[in-house]
Amino acid sequence: MQAIQLSLKVAVLCTIFIMPVALYIGWLLARKNFFGKAFIEGFLHLPLVLPPVTTGYILLLLLGRNGWIGSFFYERWGIQIAFSFPAAVIAAIVVSFPLVTRSIRLSIELVDKNYEAAARTLGASNLRVFLTITLPLALPGVLSGAILAFARSLGEFGATISFAGNIEGETQTLPLAIFSSMQVPGQESSTLKLVVVSVILSLFAMIGAEYLNRKILKKRT
User: Fold this and answer.
1) Which of 21, 10, 46, 45 is nearest to 164 (CA)?
2) Residue 201: which pLDDT band, with cuts at 50, 70 and 90?
3) Share of the chain above pLDDT 70, in %
4) Prediction pTM value
5) Cα–Cα distance, 195 to 150 (Å, whole number)
6) What's the first-to-final CA gap in the chain, in angstroms?
7) Could you tell me which residues come within 8 angstroms of residue 160 by beta carbon, excluding any fewer than 6 positions away?
8) Are 98 and 22 in contact (CB under 8 A)?
9) 2-220: which CATH architecture?
10) How far apart are CA 188 and CA 25, in angstroms?
11) Using CA atoms, how far apart are residues 123 and 98, in angstroms rounded to an integer?
């Protein structure tokens, strides 16, 4: 239960923190052309193709106790980021971000620019156009992105174990608990229970995303 609660907490926090930034980056990539855009897109999507353990190791190099950024926090304020609960949340954010951003960018690209242009000619600001035109029309993709972030966070393993460790009660999420249980002889029953819970949570997340998408599309028609 502790691992399940911790996984849900990490997934919820990851989704909350990731959505505002992903919305802005997704809109920026969908609506703006600028120098280096292809490089930025490639960099943001790097965690999709990198082995998760590699992503975790890079985070450790950056935010670990002796890392480039982590050492500053530790020496200045005594804050250790790696091998802590915040590290589990950061790992989930990093691996989930490309999925969310891609979903939002594609959904915004499908919104007809003529609607946005018409709103601007009537005096609407860019922010108002986004909130009243772009976001409502792109909402299915945005909601799908949020559910993807939640589901991906629930299943995150490689980056978490490399950067946050497998500390029971602090960083041991559901996938790590399954891994730990698999290493102990005679724990097949406990492992199976954890696997079933993991499948159910992920399945409910995906069903919820599909239900929301269909409900929104039904309202439009």
Assistant:
1) 10
2) confident
3) 96
4) 0.87
5) 17
6) 43
7) 56, 87, 88, 91, 92, 171, 173, 175, 176
8) no
9) Orthogonal Bundle (1.10)
10) 44
11) 34
Per residue in 115-156, pLDDT (tens digit) is 999 998 988 888 899 999 999 888 888 888 898 889 889 888
Q: How far apart are CA 46 and CA 54, in angstroms?
A: 11
Q: State the pLDDT confidence band at 198, using cuts at 50, 70 and 90.
A: confident
Q: At what angle do helices 174-182 and 139-155 cross, to 10 degrees?
A: 30
Q: What DSSP assignment string belongs to 32-87?
A: ---TTHHHHHHHHTHHHHS-HHHHHHHHHHHHSTTSTTHHHHHHHH----SSSHHH
Residue whose entry in the numeric block shows the structure tokens 């982590």 = 70
Residue type, 188: E
Predicted confidence (pLDDT) at residue 91 exceeds the cutoff of 90: yes
Which structure tokens are listed for 219?
């309202």
pLDDT score, position 180:
87
Contacts (Cβ under 8 Å, ≥6 apart) of 132: 119, 124
CA distance 150 to 107: 18
Residues 140-149: b if buried by 16+ CB within 10 A, e if exposed? bbbbbbbbbb
Identify the CA nearest to 47 among candidates 131, 143, 163. Answer: 163
Cβ–Cβ < 8 Å for 92, 158 = no
